[in-house]
Write a structure and sequence with these properties.
With 705 residues, the protein is an alpha/beta fold. The protein has 23 helices and 20 strands. Strands 10-11-9-12-13-8-14 form a seven-stranded parallel sheet, with helices on both faces. It has a six-stranded parallel sheet with strand order 15-20-19-16-18-17, sandwiched between helices. Helix 5 crosses helix 6, helix 7 crosses helix 9 and helix 8 runs parallel beside helix 9. The structure holds adenosine-5'-diphosphate and magnesium ion. Magnesium ion binds next to helix 9.
Length: 705
């Protein structure tokens, strides 16, 4: 369709250069001091500012009389007859006002908005809009927004954006900025290829920042969401295409070898393990690099699938590197994998920061004498070079960043692989890309379907959706101050049956990790004088940590008081109780992970979630109490917190889908179609500057090179 053209003479006056990437200093009308404030709040370019979208909109239409107020969202036109602020705690102040009109008066409450005290002139009338609700024993107006009635009545825009505050910048500051750059909107270049959608980006952004109505704002947002998804999906598509050009070694498998090793395991594979292993070895047997994510709930047996994949690689003459986020976990993997592969004759090694004789081991790795190296970040040091790295496995992948993934994939001896490339060139006419190992990432944080379709669209995914047989469900209970004695009673019962207990301490914010863990351990030891209580925290030397874990594993410690260092991996089937203090302060996935430390044996297990305050449990706590389904919890978490929070460490902030569209499967489907149509045209991305910039950002999320 035809693009609207904006006459050149309208440009120029507001901004010298019309690029969205122009620094904010180029905008005439925003002074240097303001620019500095904006910079400090993380806004550097015109684009940063334009995409600072309203949090919500305010309208004071339809104000009612105070005597007619009903619970729910209300608007009143009133004077402020009294107002005062009380500072309750260091980080809590409460401002209380009495609002009056000729029908009566009502109390308004603001939390942490002390500036309200001086905002109102008692002789002037204001609009207030907020929730009228029952709290602290009476009905009151909670955190209402407010505006001078005469201003509002005069204003042309009755539907006003409310911007998220940033540093010193309040919503009203942003309103001002946008009014300054309003004329600039017309020249905002489009991002989507022409004809993709029947609106312009300039119009959409205008609608979002200067809507006439709710419908207007929604329409603008829908466009921006589409634009965002389009970039994201296109990035996945490009990654997939680029991935096809890379080469990995072809790793053949022999089913009888695999069957033999499986037959020697102390248990039968679950169907899901079987299926996942099969999917992986199919990928390995191809020159196209595998980029597969193995997801399975805590305790679903991912390690075994990884082990079997490494076994296949070794039998075909290729090395495997398995990287875990902590030393404890790496050591435990090494031990488990050793036991799984005892009869295989494979040479397995552990490489962490505290490994002794590192240089000897590294030489063996380089010479190809080690088949499987299990380690931590220590694997990434420059002098760790593999002879023939065929498979890289990353456990708990969300703990690692893009750079670390790429570093691991680059760990193969390039001279060696170059030799191999040139000797085997039937399918590698593009061998200038070099060879990389196949990649298997593992995660216990299930990725909701909506994210699978978008952010992780270019990954292959295997799902372990069944737990090994005989696992007991974990009884989860929210513990309030009233029920805490019962909890200790129940714990004592378990201890009497020789079961073990994890106690995850209060969250620590100010670096007093050690003293806090020690203190809690001491107080628990006092409660249970006949049992052995020990503590574990992140700042301990790894030898100390290992020692504690080993003792706990051997049932020489009854209660292990710990920080969240035990969140990943630790596997002690005899532990049947998990207590989480301050549980309401953790995210859902983290709670689910912590809970997954118990329920690993055949005895019934318990998880106690101690609510840090005496107020009603949060939605998160209620969800985790009710459900043990990691996928369900991940969906809820995604809705409650957004993807950036949950997958943040993987993305390093790149996954900032700001427009909450990630759960909108209809929109995703539409964007997917548009992307497919566009990709088929083999577009020259140099022609689409805006799009290219946006796509590049997302491409880094899952790319292999
Ligand atoms: P996760 O998926 O959380 O990494 P693990 O691989 O640590 O889970 O497995 C959890 C426990 O289940 C381990 O003790 C492992 O030996 C055991 N396990 C794995 N597969 C099976 C199976 N098919 N049957 C019974 N136990 C299994
Ligand atoms: Mg694991």
């Amino acid at each position: 369709m035809a693009r609207a053209k904006f006459p050149q003479d309208l440009l120029g006056s507001i901004i010298d250069c019309m690029e969205l990437s122009s620094p904010l200093g180029n905008i005439k009308g925003i002074g240097p001091k303001t620019v500095e404030l904006l910079n400090r709040a993380g806004f550097f370019t015109v684009r940063d500012l334009l995409y600072h979208l309203p949090r919500t909109y305010e309208s004071y239409e339809g104000a009612g009389r105070i005597s007619d107020l009903r619970p729910g969202k209300v608007t009143v036109k009133a004077k402020v007859s009294s107002i005062k602020t009380n500072r309750k705690r260091r980080n809590l102040s409460i401002t209380e006002a009495i609002l009056s009109d000729d029908s009566g008066s009502v109390r308004a409450i603001w939390f942490n908005q002390p500036y309200r005290t001086n905002q109102f002139d008692p002789n002037k009338t204001y609009y207030f809009s907020g929730n009228f609700e029952f709290s602290y024993g009476r009905y009151q107006l909670m955190n209402p927004s407010a505006t001078l009635a005469s201003d509002y009545d005069r204003a042309a825009d009755k539907y006003q954006p409310v911007y998220p505050a940033c540093g010193k910048l309040k919503s009203t500051n942003f309103t001002k900025f946008f009014n300054t750059i309003k004329p600039f909107f017309a020249q905002i270049p489009d991002l989507l290829p022409p004809g993709t959608i029947k609106t312009l980006r300039s119009e959409a952004l205008f609608q979002v920042h200067f809507p006439k109505s709710a419908a207007d704002a929604d329409q603008g947002r829908a466009y921006l969401a589409f634009e965002e998804l389009f970039s994201l999906l296109l990035a996945g598509q490009f990654n997939r295409e680029e991935n096809q050009k890379l080469r990995s070694p072809v790793i053949k498998y022999q089913l009888d070898q695999l069957k033999k090793i499986i037959a020697k395991l102390p248990f039968k594979l679950t169907n899901a393990q079987r299926r996942s292993t099969w999917e992986i070895i199919q990928n390995l047997d191809s020159p196209i690099p595998m980029n597969r994510l193995l997801q399975g709930d805590v305790g679903s047996g991912k390690t075994l699938v990884a082990t079997l994949s490494a076994f296949i690689a070794a039998k075909s003459g290729y090395q495997t590197a398995l990287m875990a986020p902590t030393e404890i976990l790496a050591a435990q993997h090494a031990e488990t994998i050793h036991s799984f592969l005892r009869s295989s004759g494979l040479h397995i090694a552990l490489l962490t920061g505290s490994t002794k004789n590192k240089s000897t081991l590294k030489k063996q790795i380089r010479d190809g004498q080690v088949d499987l190296v299990i380690g931590t970040h220590a694997l990434l040091t420059d002098d760790t070079i593999f002879h023939k790295l065929g498979l890289a496995i990353i456990d708990e992948q969300h703990r690692f960043g893009v750079k670390q993934r790429q570093a691991l994939l680059a760990k193969t001896d390039t001279e060696e692989s170059a030799k191999r490339d040139s000797s085997r060139c039937t399918y590698c006419e593009e061998s200038s890309f070099g060879t990389i190992p196949h990649l298997l990432s593992m995660t216990a944080t299930p990725i909701p379907r909506s994210l699978q379709l978008t952010v992780f669209g270019d990954l292959d995914i295997s799902i372990i959706d069944e737990l090994p047989k005989g696992r007991q469900p974990i009884t989860t209970k929210i513990i309030s101050p009233n029920s805490i004695d019962q909890m200790w009673q129940a714990i004592e019962n378990e201890l009497k049956q020789k079961r073990q207990v994890y106690y995850v301490c209060k969250m620590i914010e100010d670096g007093t990790e050690l003293s806090s863990v020690k203190k809690e351990a001491a107080s628990i030891a006092k409660k249970f004088p006949n049992y052995k209580v020990e503590y574990l925290h992140g700042k301990m030397k790894s030898a100390e940590k290992d020692n504690i874990i080993a003792k706990f594993t051997a049932n020489k410690i009854n209660i292990l008081v710990s920080t969240t260092v035990i969140e990943v991996g630790v596997n002690v089937p005899n532990a049947t109780v998990m207590v989480i203090a301050d549980a309401d302060r953790y995210g859902l996935s983290q709670l689910h992970q912590l809970r997954g430390r118990v329920g690993r044996g055949t005895a019934e297990s318990y998880c106690y979630l101690i609510n840090s305050s005496s107020s009603a449990p949060t939605r998160r706590l209620k969800e985790i109490e009710r459900s043990q389904d990691g996928f369900h919890l991940a969906e809820v978490d995604l809705k409650l917190r957004g993807p950036g929070e949950i997958y943040g460490s993987l993305q390093h902030g790149a996954l900032d889908l700001r427009i909450a569209s990630i759960t909108d499967t209809k929109l995703i489907a539409a964007a997917r179609q548009a992307v497919n149509r566009f990709a088929k045209t083999k577009p020259n991305m140099l022609k689409y500057k805006e799009l290219a910039a946006s796509v590049q950002k997302y491409q880094r999320l899952t790319t292999l090179n």
